[in-house]
Amino acid sequence: MSLIQQALTGGDRRSLGRTEEVVLWVLADGYRLDELFECLFVEDKIVRMRASDGLEKVARQQPDRFVPYVERLLTDVAEIEQASVQWHLAQILSEIPLTTEQQARAIELLKLNLDLYDDWIVVNLTLEALAKFARQDDDLRQEFRAILRRYQYSPKKSIASRVRKLLREFG
């Protein structure tokens, strides 16, 4: 077990444990990013959740470091059936540099996740990620409006609230 995996193991499943400490390690040492990334594929769901949170925090500060991981994000990580991994994946994909082809794949993955997950956090963060892409893409903007209307009357208040905000922006 790697040092990072050990740091992410145990404790209350609702807490981030030592994730902040791990993020500092990764930000300081480029070689640690691979170690953190591999924690997405361990059996322990808590470690996967914390690893995905840590990766999202690193991506926000050092997005270019994720270029070598894009393919695995779009394939291997996309296949992890865990809501907390998928909501962080949405955040990561909207932060890191993507080629035109990779961005198209990311958008399709995000739209698929809206169909696969009804978790309110997945839906909210996936809509935010799609909004970032739609701000740059006229074709997606049209489709995004329709997606927003689908969630406009969600019984989940946080989703309905986010959609109202996004509809004000996207019309």
- Report Rg: 16 Å
Helix tally?
A: 10
Report the portion of residues in β strands. under 5%
Q: H/E element string?
A: HHHHHHHHHH
The overall strand count is: 0
Average pLDDT rating = 95
Q: Uncertain runs with pLDDT below 50, 5 residues or more?
A: none
Q: Report how far apart the termini are.
A: 50 Å
Q: What does this entry look like structurally?
A:
By secondary structure, this protein is an all-alpha fold. Helices cover 71% and strands 0% of the residues. Helix 9 packs antiparallel against helix 10.
Feature tags:
171 residues, mainly alpha, globular
Layout of SSEs?
Blueprint: H1 3-8, H2 19-28, H3 32-38, H4 45-61, H5 70-77, H6 83-95, H7 100-116, H8 120-134, H9 138-151, H10 157-170
Helix pairs in contact: 2-4, 4-6, 6-8, 7-8, 8-9, 8-10, 9-10
Provide a short characterization of the protein structure.
This protein is mostly helical.
